[in-house]
Each structure stands twice: as structure tokens, then as C-alpha cells.
Amino acid sequence: MRRSTARWTSLGVLLGLAVAWQIASMLITAESVPGEPMVPGWQVLATSTLLSLSDNWLGGLGVRGIAEGGARSYAGALLAILSNSWDTSLRLYSGLLLGACVGVLAGLGVSWSSWSRRVVALPGQIMRTFPLLALIPLFQLWFGLTFLGMMLFVAYGVGVIFFTGTVNAVRNVPPVYIQNARTLGASRLRVYRTIIVPAMFPELRSSMLLSIGVAWTAVVGAEFLGAQTGLGQIIVYAKYFGYVDRMFLVGLILLVYAALTFALVERLSRPLTVWMPNGHGEDNIVEVGADNQLRVRDAAPRRVAGVLAAGPE
Q: What domains lie within the chain, and their CATH numbers?
């Protein structure tokens, strides 16, 4: 019942925001340029604004583009949205995957040994303090307006989040897990594979969800600097001519994509945390069997925070 109430409450908030925007569009009659409302109403967004996005369709699939002499059409608008969404998504998910892998490996390196900690920890802490958007011009100069440059920029923004999340997640793994596994003769690699990585995932999951918003911000920011395709490029084009309605509509599309990505990652990652005990682990015991597999039952000691660096090599 509570979950149903929460969903209806969230839906009510969204509807309230939509109504407030519509009221604002009727009260604010200012125009960015003649004929372009500063606060477009929903009836404008669903008709003329959506139709105008067909300007970004270059032609093909039986629908002529504006540059080819074709007329504006909803089919062209839909194809323009899908085409540019594909380009943006390709840059985003490539960078997200690369950044996640590098960030997690670097974070695990902090606790692997004292030598790897000295190599990884300080550069990682320095890199995560750089303002992300301030680095866009540097990536543009280093890699140009290429797919590689935009992908690496997204990877950088995501990687620092995964690095910090991994370091904190490993630090908060209960030491009893490690001690029991080592008592049974597990090697360092096996401890990481069967104990640390599964045990740190529930806490790392929050970093995964946080990185989604950063990734979408980074990829759109990268496209602002001159990409020839992508949703960010549509916003830049609209900004030059004062098309506030187009910027707002593309922003809504990005919001929907980010929400869907968040929901997908949240749903896919949920089964990986089913082994977690209810509550915060204060009332459960963790046992390691002869097969080095974790088992959880009631009455566990509290988690003990600490740097879980590996023992002497």
C-alpha cells in the first residue's frame, strides 16, 4: 500500500509541474525572437516544435530532408530524434562502460597492495577534484571533435565517480569476510573474486546510479563544442537562433532517456544484491563454508570500517 501511495504521489507531483509550466506559458508572453515564446506551452511543443525538429533530418528511408527540398513532417522529426539519439547514446554508453571498468580497477588497486596504492591513490584523488565541464576545451584540443574525444570525456567523468565509490565500498567490506576466507586458505585473487567484489557491490551500486546522470551531462556538454550530430548539437543550433521551444523539447527527451537508463540499471543490478541481509547487517552473521562461499544468518557483528589493503605479498 505504501509503495502504491508513493507512486501516485510521484505522479501527482509530475502532473503538478506540467500544469505549473502550462500556466507559466500563459502568463509569460515574452518571446526570445518574434514568433518564438520564451515559455512554450505543451500545445506548442507537441505540434510546431516537434515538427520543426525535422530540420535536423538529412534525408533517407523514404523521407526527404529539408536540405533536399522536402517539407517538414512528423516522420522526419521522429527520424531526426532517433538518428541523433543513436549518436548520443553510442558516445554515452561507450564512455560509461570504459569509465566504469577503469574506475573500478583503479579503485581495487588502492587496496590490492601498498605498492599499487602508492601508484594509484594520489593520481586518482587529484583527477577527481578537477571540474568536469572545465576540461571540455582541453579534450577538444587534445582529441578534436571526434567520437574518441567525446567518449573519453564521458569516461573521465564516470571513471572518477567509480574510483571514489570503489575505494569507499572496499573500505566498508566487513573484515570478518576477509579473515574467514584467508583462514580457509583462499588466495588474494580468490578473496577479491569471491569476497570483496560481491560484498562491495551493494555500496558501489549507488555510484553506478549516480554516474548515469553525470554521463548524460558529460556527453551533452561534449557535443556542445561542435559535434555535427547528436542531441547536444540540436540544442546548440537552437540556441544560435533563439529557439527556446526546441531546446526545452530536446531537454525533455534527454530527461526521459536519463530516467529510462537509471531505471534499467537499477532493475538489472537489483538481483545482484539479493544476498544482502535486511537492515544494515547488525543482526546477521556471515559464515564462509568449506567451498569459500558466503552464507548469512542472524546475529552478525557490526561492520567495521577500515582500509582493507592486502597483507604482505
A: 1-39 (no CATH), 82-298 (1.10.3720.10)
